[in-house]
Amino acid sequence: MMGVQKGRKPAALFLNVLAVLSLAVLVYLAWHTDFRQIGLHLAALPRGLVLFLLALQVVTQLALNYQWFRLCRTLGLQASFGELLLVNAYGTVVDAANPGEKVGGEVARVLQLHSLLGFSANQAASLVAIQKSLSLAALVILSGLAVLVLGDSLPPLASPGLRLVVLAVLAALAAIVAWVLLGTERLNSRVQRLKSEGKPAVWLKRWMAGLARDTAAIGRRPGEWGLQLLLSLGIWTLFPLKLWLLTAQHASLNPLFLFAATFAAYFAAMIPLLPGGLGTFEAVMGGMLVASGLTWEEALAISLVFRFVTFWFVVLGSALLIAGGKMIQLTRERVHER
Fold first, then answer.
1. Domain total for the chain?
2. pTM of the model
């Protein structure tokens, strides 16, 4: 036990130092920010644009939920569109409550797929792994495109050598995802040959066998992998589109630069420092927008609105959906008691 704790100390110390430095930067930026100017920029945003962005975010969430629904149908898993909305709502709320996004949320989705829909733990974990792999594949493709087209104009990627390293990492990630989704049978064969019979090994073998079965089921439907990838590409593309609509009120910026700014901010928010990437996201996105020529106040106002539309609005809607589901459940229980 002591060995495990010792192994965690360097990582914990690094994250603590990083958290302190990040907070120091945020305090410095807040101290030098003219919040009156930010308020003026926020007030100047057309109400129709904000409503359109909110509607576009609802479309984004529905498209994401449709991907889950279609995967369930393909795999023969019984789940309604509304039930999956509720499962994803739990994942979103857990994401907002935990430092570092996407890890706790995926665990919550697995647990809710098991408890609410009756999926086995292996089925739930397999479904989540497939959906997340598709999402990662789309992100890698779009990131690679941004690096190829925009690398010269991004200071961190101005060096051809560094750009090649980034592209090599993205290519490696793409190969791993492709192997997981399309070469699952071979991967499963290797896992099944493991000699260990401990509980973790037994669970891994069962899960891997289920994942191989599920990916094979998707592969038997002509064009299904392509459609699922297109869905993921479309969903990811909607995020920089929202940022483009916001920045268009101030300047005409390269759409690929906005794509890079969007996902650089998302990657920064995944570092487990503050709940939901609070502050980190806005600072990174704001910094990149400033580099494109906007004032810090303009950039921060845009970042705040973008973050509200794409994250906090979704968290609020998810919390209301969960509360509504609980109320319906309690009402049904009272009716049955009578």
1. 1
2. 0.82
